Amino acid sequence: MSKNKLSLDFPGLEEYAEKLDRLAGGEALKEAVGEALEKSRDFINEQLHAEMKKHHRTGNTEKSIMDNVKVEWSGNEVEVKVGFDIAHGGLPSIFLMYGTPKAAKDQKLYNAIYGAATKRKIKALQDEAFQKAIDKVMGG
Amino acid sequence: MEDNLIQILEAFGYPVYRQGSMSNDTKYPPTFFTFWNNDSQDHSHYDDNDYGTEWDYEINVYSNDPELTYSVLAEARASLKQAGWITAGKGYDVASDEPSHTGRGLQVIYLEF
């Protein structure tokens, strides 16, 4: 998987997916997957927007954050793009996120996508999206 | 772990710098490494104690020979793996301050117990 794509990854995913599929069928499962990935995407992008405020010169790099990118399905594979669109104004984000020999990286901006706290939050958001979908079909 | 990382990189005979530490008036060497420590979080917790440290670094190779940018990073990856470091993929492009050089980066992790 490419570095700027996000897939489902949390403990218990398979059990949740099987349960949801059994209780409500493939469409409900697909909906939960989409919801989990959209929430993950939105969380990361909100953090990126917040961290980009201090780098605001033209605003072009921040504008390249892929806010409304759709979840992509390819057979049973599913993922969503997050972060900066390098081909459309996001190139300076590479300078910011990884630094250069003469400029230190912006660790907070990097952590907004790749940091341990972000990864933990993404797992929690995905777990929550599946739990909600199961509660819904069970009448909770 | 930083000493171990630097030692492995220095064995290639190229200078090693911390990312961002080079002054603006310093000229890039023809080929060199940089590194950066992203994180050093606890690996796991049990009984109110932490066990192990997950050392998360980025290493970068910059060179005025694009072929070396790739090949030196690949060789560094092999050496680090042999020394017990975990590497994530084969790397990605990183930005250079000087148009004469290209750069490639790689995330490397060491679990210390």
What is the first-to-last residue Cα distance of chain B?
12 Å
Shape of chain B: elongated
Tally the helices of chain B: what do you get? 2
The structural class of chain B is: alpha+beta
Radius of gyration of chain A, whole Å: 17 Å
The number of domains of chain A is: 1
Domains of chain B, number: 1
Reported for the largest beta sheet of chain A, the result is: 3 strands, antiparallel
Question: What is the count of β-strands of chain A?
Answer: 3
Name the biggest interface.
A-B, 17 and 27 residues
Strand order of the biggest β-sheet of chain A: 1-3-2
Mean pLDDT of chain A: 92
Under CATH at level 1, the class of chain B stands as Alpha Beta
Strand content of chain A: 5-15%
Give the termini distance of chain A in whole angstroms. 35 Å
| Averaged pLDDT of chain B | 95
Question: SS-based structural class of chain A?
Answer: mainly alpha
The multimeric state of the shown protein is heterodimer
Instruction: Summarize the amount of helix of chain A as a percent range.
Output: 55-70%
Classify the helix fraction of chain B into a percent range: 10-25%
